[in-house]
Amino acid sequence: MIEVRNLVKNIASSHRQNAQKNGIAIIDNLELLIEQGQSASVQGASGCGKTTLLHLLSGLDHPCAGTLIVAKHAIHNYDETRLDYFRRHTIGIVFQQFHLLESLNVEDNIAFTARLAGNLDPHHINNLMQQLGIADMRNQRVTKLSGGEQQRVAIARALAHKPRVVFADEPTGNLDEHTSSAVSELLFSTCRALNTTLLLVTHSNDVAALADDAYHMTSGQLTKITPSLQKS
Ligand SMILES: Nc1ncnc2c1ncn2[C@@H]1O[C@H](COP(=O)(O)OP(=O)(O)OP(=O)(O)O)[C@@H](O)[C@H]1O
Ligand SMILES: [Mg+2]
Known about the structure:
Layout: E1 2-11, E2 24-34, E3 39-43, H1 50-57, E4 65-70, E5 73-74, H2 80-89, E6 91-94, H3 106-117, H4 122-131, H5 147-159, E7 165-169, H6 177-194, E8 197-201, H7 205-208, E9 213-218, E10 221-224, H8 227-230
Parallel strand pairs: 3-8, 3-9, 6-7, 7-8
Antiparallel strand pairs: 1-2, 1-4, 4-5, 9-10
Helix pairs in contact: 3-5
The protein binds adenosine-5'-triphosphate and magnesium ion.
Magnesium ion is lined by residues 50-51, 96, 169.
Protein backbone atom coordinates (compact mmCIF):
# COMPACT_ATOMS: atom_id res chain seq x y z
CA MET A 1 0.00 0.00 0.00
CA ILE A 2 1.13 3.56 -0.69
CA GLU A 3 -0.32 6.53 1.16
CA VAL A 4 0.83 10.06 0.44
CA ARG A 5 -0.64 13.10 2.21
CA ASN A 6 0.17 16.80 1.79
CA LEU A 7 3.48 16.03 0.11
CA VAL A 8 5.58 19.11 -0.71
CA LYS A 9 8.95 19.32 -2.47
CA ASN A 10 10.49 22.69 -3.29
CA ILE A 11 13.37 23.08 -5.72
CA ALA A 12 15.92 25.89 -5.67
CA SER A 13 14.67 29.00 -7.44
CA SER A 14 17.78 29.13 -9.69
CA HIS A 15 16.43 26.12 -11.57
CA ARG A 16 13.39 27.97 -12.90
CA GLN A 17 12.80 31.43 -14.29
CA ASN A 18 10.40 33.68 -12.30
CA ALA A 19 10.70 31.43 -9.26
CA GLN A 20 9.65 32.72 -5.86
CA LYS A 21 12.20 33.62 -3.19
CA ASN A 22 12.10 30.25 -1.38
CA GLY A 23 12.08 28.14 -4.52
CA ILE A 24 9.04 26.65 -6.18
CA ALA A 25 7.02 23.64 -5.18
CA ILE A 26 7.60 20.97 -7.83
CA ILE A 27 5.36 18.74 -5.66
CA ASP A 28 2.60 20.81 -4.08
CA ASN A 29 0.35 19.17 -1.47
CA LEU A 30 0.17 15.96 -3.47
CA GLU A 31 -2.17 13.17 -2.31
CA LEU A 32 -2.15 9.53 -3.43
CA LEU A 33 -3.58 6.24 -2.17
CA ILE A 34 -2.86 2.85 -3.73
CA GLU A 35 -4.06 -0.30 -1.96
CA GLN A 36 -1.68 -3.25 -1.56
CA GLY A 37 -1.43 -5.24 -4.79
CA GLN A 38 -3.07 -2.51 -6.86
CA SER A 39 -1.37 -0.52 -9.64
CA ALA A 40 -1.36 3.12 -10.67
CA SER A 41 0.15 4.97 -13.61
CA VAL A 42 1.31 8.59 -13.76
CA GLN A 43 1.59 10.62 -16.95
CA GLY A 44 2.54 14.26 -17.34
CA ALA A 45 4.69 16.73 -19.25
CA SER A 46 8.46 16.39 -19.17
CA GLY A 47 9.81 18.20 -16.10
CA CYS A 48 6.51 18.18 -14.17
CA GLY A 49 8.02 16.16 -11.29
CA LYS A 50 7.27 12.49 -11.99
CA THR A 51 10.80 11.20 -11.31
CA THR A 52 11.02 13.49 -8.27
CA LEU A 53 7.85 11.86 -6.88
CA LEU A 54 9.29 8.34 -7.37
CA HIS A 55 12.57 9.39 -5.72
CA LEU A 56 10.65 10.75 -2.71
CA LEU A 57 8.60 7.54 -2.41
CA SER A 58 11.81 5.46 -2.66
CA GLY A 59 13.57 7.43 0.08
CA LEU A 60 16.21 8.59 -2.42
CA ASP A 61 15.13 12.21 -1.96
CA HIS A 62 13.64 13.94 1.09
CA PRO A 63 10.32 15.78 1.24
CA CYS A 64 9.99 19.35 2.55
CA ALA A 65 6.68 18.38 4.18
CA GLY A 66 4.08 15.65 4.20
CA THR A 67 3.37 12.03 5.05
CA LEU A 68 4.82 9.16 3.02
CA ILE A 69 3.76 5.64 3.97
CA VAL A 70 5.04 2.83 1.75
CA ALA A 71 4.14 -0.77 2.71
CA LYS A 72 3.59 0.31 6.33
CA HIS A 73 6.91 2.22 6.46
CA ALA A 74 6.43 5.88 7.47
CA ILE A 75 9.54 6.87 5.53
CA HIS A 76 9.15 10.63 6.09
CA ASN A 77 10.35 9.88 9.66
CA TYR A 78 13.24 7.57 8.67
CA ASP A 79 16.97 8.23 9.01
CA GLU A 80 19.44 6.98 6.37
CA THR A 81 20.00 3.61 8.09
CA ARG A 82 16.31 2.76 8.15
CA LEU A 83 15.86 4.10 4.59
CA ASP A 84 18.70 1.86 3.43
CA TYR A 85 17.02 -1.21 4.96
CA PHE A 86 13.65 -0.15 3.51
CA ARG A 87 15.11 0.25 -0.01
CA ARG A 88 16.88 -3.10 0.17
CA HIS A 89 13.97 -5.22 1.40
CA THR A 90 10.67 -3.52 0.67
CA ILE A 91 10.84 -1.86 -2.73
CA GLY A 92 12.09 -2.49 -6.27
CA ILE A 93 12.98 0.37 -8.58
CA VAL A 94 13.23 0.53 -12.36
CA PHE A 95 15.21 3.73 -12.88
CA GLN A 96 14.70 5.94 -15.92
CA GLN A 97 18.45 5.56 -16.64
CA PHE A 98 18.57 1.84 -15.59
CA HIS A 99 21.66 2.17 -13.27
CA LEU A 100 22.86 -1.39 -13.99
CA LEU A 101 26.22 -2.57 -12.62
CA GLU A 102 28.47 -2.49 -15.68
CA SER A 103 31.06 -4.96 -14.36
CA LEU A 104 28.45 -7.71 -13.85
CA ASN A 105 26.69 -9.99 -16.31
CA VAL A 106 22.90 -10.09 -16.84
CA GLU A 107 22.13 -12.78 -14.27
CA ASP A 108 24.35 -11.28 -11.55
CA ASN A 109 22.76 -7.85 -12.09
CA ILE A 110 19.31 -9.36 -11.62
CA ALA A 111 20.33 -11.44 -8.59
CA PHE A 112 22.17 -8.55 -6.95
CA THR A 113 19.23 -6.96 -5.12
CA ALA A 114 17.85 -10.37 -4.11
CA ARG A 115 21.22 -11.35 -2.61
CA LEU A 116 21.37 -8.06 -0.70
CA ALA A 117 17.84 -8.63 0.59
CA GLY A 118 18.68 -12.24 1.56
CA ASN A 119 15.80 -13.40 -0.64
CA LEU A 120 17.44 -15.16 -3.58
CA ASP A 121 15.05 -17.49 -5.43
CA PRO A 122 16.88 -18.86 -8.52
CA HIS A 123 13.66 -20.37 -9.90
CA HIS A 124 11.88 -16.98 -9.76
CA ILE A 125 14.88 -15.24 -11.36
CA ASN A 126 15.07 -17.85 -14.09
CA ASN A 127 11.35 -17.41 -14.81
CA LEU A 128 11.74 -13.64 -15.03
CA MET A 129 14.64 -13.97 -17.48
CA GLN A 130 12.69 -16.44 -19.62
CA GLN A 131 9.55 -14.31 -19.68
CA LEU A 132 11.48 -11.14 -20.49
CA GLY A 133 13.42 -12.88 -23.30
CA ILE A 134 16.86 -12.31 -21.78
CA ALA A 135 17.67 -15.85 -20.57
CA ASP A 136 20.03 -16.49 -23.51
CA MET A 137 22.05 -13.42 -22.50
CA ARG A 138 22.43 -14.40 -18.86
CA ASN A 139 26.24 -14.62 -19.04
CA GLN A 140 26.79 -11.46 -21.07
CA ARG A 141 28.12 -8.22 -19.61
CA VAL A 142 25.29 -5.68 -19.55
CA THR A 143 27.43 -3.13 -21.40
CA LYS A 144 27.19 -5.39 -24.48
CA LEU A 145 23.37 -5.17 -24.57
CA SER A 146 21.09 -2.80 -26.46
CA GLY A 147 19.10 -0.15 -24.57
CA GLY A 148 15.94 -2.24 -24.79
CA GLU A 149 17.72 -5.34 -23.49
CA GLN A 150 19.22 -3.38 -20.61
CA GLN A 151 15.75 -2.08 -19.80
CA ARG A 152 14.44 -5.64 -19.47
CA VAL A 153 17.36 -6.51 -17.16
CA ALA A 154 16.44 -3.48 -15.02
CA ILE A 155 12.82 -4.69 -14.82
CA ALA A 156 13.87 -8.22 -13.83
CA ARG A 157 16.21 -6.80 -11.17
CA ALA A 158 13.40 -4.72 -9.65
CA LEU A 159 11.22 -7.83 -9.30
CA ALA A 160 13.93 -10.34 -8.30
CA HIS A 161 13.52 -10.04 -4.50
CA LYS A 162 9.68 -10.09 -4.66
CA PRO A 163 9.32 -6.59 -3.21
CA ARG A 164 6.10 -5.28 -1.62
CA VAL A 165 6.17 -2.22 -3.88
CA VAL A 166 7.69 -1.51 -7.31
CA PHE A 167 8.39 1.97 -8.69
CA ALA A 168 9.00 2.04 -12.44
CA ASP A 169 10.13 5.19 -14.26
CA GLU A 170 9.40 4.93 -18.01
CA PRO A 171 10.05 1.16 -17.95
CA THR A 172 9.25 0.72 -21.64
CA GLY A 173 10.77 3.96 -22.96
CA ASN A 174 13.47 2.17 -24.99
CA LEU A 175 11.34 -0.65 -26.35
CA ASP A 176 9.58 -0.99 -29.69
CA GLU A 177 5.77 -1.06 -29.61
CA HIS A 178 5.46 -4.87 -29.65
CA THR A 179 8.11 -5.48 -26.97
CA SER A 180 6.75 -2.58 -24.92
CA SER A 181 3.32 -4.15 -24.71
CA ALA A 182 4.72 -7.63 -23.87
CA VAL A 183 7.09 -6.26 -21.21
CA SER A 184 4.53 -3.99 -19.60
CA GLU A 185 1.97 -6.79 -19.45
CA LEU A 186 4.59 -8.97 -17.75
CA LEU A 187 5.40 -6.20 -15.27
CA PHE A 188 1.72 -5.81 -14.35
CA SER A 189 1.00 -9.55 -14.20
CA THR A 190 4.11 -10.34 -12.11
CA CYS A 191 3.18 -7.61 -9.63
CA ARG A 192 -0.38 -8.95 -9.44
CA ALA A 193 0.90 -12.51 -8.85
CA LEU A 194 3.22 -11.32 -6.06
CA ASN A 195 0.54 -9.00 -4.58
CA THR A 196 3.06 -6.21 -5.16
CA THR A 197 1.87 -2.60 -5.41
CA LEU A 198 3.04 -0.94 -8.64
CA LEU A 199 3.46 2.76 -9.34
CA LEU A 200 4.54 3.38 -12.90
CA VAL A 201 5.47 6.56 -14.77
CA THR A 202 4.96 6.46 -18.51
CA HIS A 203 4.47 8.62 -21.58
CA SER A 204 2.49 5.82 -23.26
CA ASN A 205 -1.33 5.93 -23.08
CA ASP A 206 -1.46 2.19 -23.78
CA VAL A 207 0.86 1.31 -20.88
CA ALA A 208 -0.92 3.78 -18.55
CA ALA A 209 -4.26 2.14 -19.35
CA LEU A 210 -3.06 -1.22 -17.97
CA ALA A 211 -3.06 0.19 -14.43
CA ASP A 212 -6.00 -0.08 -12.02
CA ASP A 213 -5.90 3.72 -11.64
CA ALA A 214 -4.41 6.25 -14.06
CA TYR A 215 -3.29 9.73 -12.94
CA HIS A 216 -2.16 12.88 -14.68
CA MET A 217 0.42 15.07 -12.95
CA THR A 218 0.13 18.81 -13.26
CA SER A 219 0.97 21.77 -10.99
CA GLY A 220 2.60 19.38 -8.53
CA GLN A 221 -0.56 17.32 -7.96
CA LEU A 222 -2.16 14.14 -9.27
CA THR A 223 -5.59 14.01 -10.90
CA LYS A 224 -7.32 10.72 -11.62
CA ILE A 225 -7.99 10.25 -15.34
CA THR A 226 -11.44 8.90 -16.12
CA PRO A 227 -11.45 5.85 -18.43
CA SER A 228 -13.12 7.75 -21.29
CA LEU A 229 -10.30 10.35 -21.35
CA GLN A 230 -7.65 7.69 -21.19
CA LYS A 231 -8.21 6.12 -24.60
CA SER A 232 -5.44 6.98 -27.07
N1 LIG B 1 18.28 17.51 -8.00
C1 LIG B 1 17.53 18.52 -8.45
N2 LIG B 1 17.67 19.74 -7.95
C2 LIG B 1 16.89 20.74 -8.37
N3 LIG B 1 15.97 20.62 -9.30
C3 LIG B 1 15.77 19.42 -9.85
C4 LIG B 1 16.54 18.31 -9.46
N4 LIG B 1 16.12 17.24 -10.16
C5 LIG B 1 15.14 17.68 -10.97
N5 LIG B 1 14.93 18.99 -10.79
C6 LIG B 1 13.93 19.82 -11.46
O1 LIG B 1 12.66 19.37 -11.02
C7 LIG B 1 11.72 19.37 -12.10
C8 LIG B 1 11.09 18.02 -12.23
O2 LIG B 1 12.05 17.07 -12.68
P1 LIG B 1 11.69 15.54 -12.87
O3 LIG B 1 12.96 14.84 -13.25
O4 LIG B 1 10.99 15.05 -11.65
O5 LIG B 1 10.68 15.61 -14.09
P2 LIG B 1 9.94 14.45 -14.89
O6 LIG B 1 8.49 14.72 -14.80
O7 LIG B 1 10.42 13.13 -14.42
O8 LIG B 1 10.42 14.71 -16.40
P3 LIG B 1 10.72 13.64 -17.61
O9 LIG B 1 9.37 13.25 -18.16
O10 LIG B 1 11.51 14.45 -18.58
O11 LIG B 1 11.51 12.51 -17.05
C9 LIG B 1 12.51 19.85 -13.34
O12 LIG B 1 12.21 21.21 -13.52
C10 LIG B 1 13.94 19.64 -12.97
O13 LIG B 1 14.76 20.63 -13.58
MG1 LIG C 1 11.57 11.64 -15.31
